[in-house]
Specification:
single chain; 308 residues; alpha/beta; Rossmann fold; 4-stranded antiparallel beta sheet; 30% helix
Length: 308
């Protein structure tokens, strides 16, 4: 039977093209059900307060960097969204005098305008956010060299850096289109007009410049620009599945305001039950050997009709 047409963007694949029974199963999940989805290779954890949640997310940075040595440099790939952990990372590093000279960081994505990455003058620049919220707040004598901070500007060099240095953790959030970084669902065209690409094909995508699903544009206007859609670029550079599968662990953090109660259930169900589908890019992590989902309990909410 033919897959449904997307309810929100007919020229694209997305989660609204999934089987209705799967969608209904996700909507029925309780918080306790989410915990029960843990299995070997997929760990679900809850945090009861936002303070604890963001502190744990920040400590994931610091613990990773503490493992870096001159003979074994390691790093973490991190998101813009959530960002609340970033000032905490700097504060912990400074308070504990953690020397980062052998540590590395990868920014996982950046906006593209006029066929190139936006500069740090752009109000939505991810590199600007990383520097201002975290790295520029770390004392100079503790900071990692600038050469150890990798942004997806020169994409081939960026991709090669994942072979030169071990990425212990790829940390991220989840967008409304169910992406990590800007690994959005593909457009519904060409050979993928009637079926989305198989997971094995999607996973061959490296760091690249990609077009963004309309849902992603709307979400970023809402979360980062006060709803000002014209300010949001429609293309971005992003870390790809190829680099993601070189990370020892993929760690996704759900504070409850980037995606909604339904979305943060759906991806956990698909990963926990090993149902990868490229219309839901996050679900491809069902095939990664070490994935962690961390939820703020107060952000889990419920999937119920509630008029506002």
């Amino acid at each position: 039977m033919a897959r449904p047409i997307s309810k929100v963007a007919p020229g694209w694949w997305d989660y609204t093209t999934l089987d209705n029974e799967l969608l209904a199963d996700a909507a029925r999940l309780t918080a306790d059900d989410l915990l029960q989805l843990s299995r070997d290779g997929f760990e679900v954890s809850f945090y009861d307060t936002l303070e604890e949640f963001y502190c744990a997310e920040a400590l994931e940075y610091v613990r990773t960097w503490q493992r870096a040595t001159a003979d074994n440099p390691v790093g973490i790939c991190g998101p813009i969204g959530p960002t609340e952990q970033l000032p905490l990372v700097a504060r912990i590093v400074n308070a504990l005098d953690v020397k980062l000279h052998n540590a590395h960081f990868w920014g996982m994505d950046e906006w593209i305008e006029n066929d190139g990455p936006v500069s740090m003058d752009h109000p939505l620049s991810f590199a600007k956010a990383d520097m201002e919220l975290c790295f520029n707040r770390i004392r100079r004598e503790l900071r990692m060299p600038d050469a150890n901070i990798h942004f997806p500007t020169e994409l081939e060099a960026y991709s090669r850096s994942f072979d030169a240095v071990r990425c212990l953790v790829m940390q991220g959030g989840q967008g409304e289109v169910k992406h990590w970084a800007f690994n959005d669902p593909p457009q519904r065209e060409g050979q993928w007009k009637h079926e989305p690409p198989p997971p094995s094909v999607y996973r061959q995508l490296k760091s690249r410049i990609t077009d963004l699903h309309p849902m992603t544009v709307i979400q970023n206007a809402r979360t980062s620009g006060g709803g000002y859609v014209p300010q949001v670029p429609t293309r971005a550079a992003t870390v790809g599945p190829v680099e993601t599968w070189k990370a020892d662990c993929v760690s996704i953090w759900h504070p409850g305001h980037h995606d909604n109660p339904f979305g943060i259930r759906l991806t956990a169900l698909m990963i926990g039950k090993r149902i990868p589908d490229s219309s839901v890019p996050m679900s491809l992590l069902a095939e990664h050997p070490n994935v962690k989902f961390s939820y703020y309990r107060g952000g889990i909410g419920s999937v119920a009709a509630e008029m506002h």
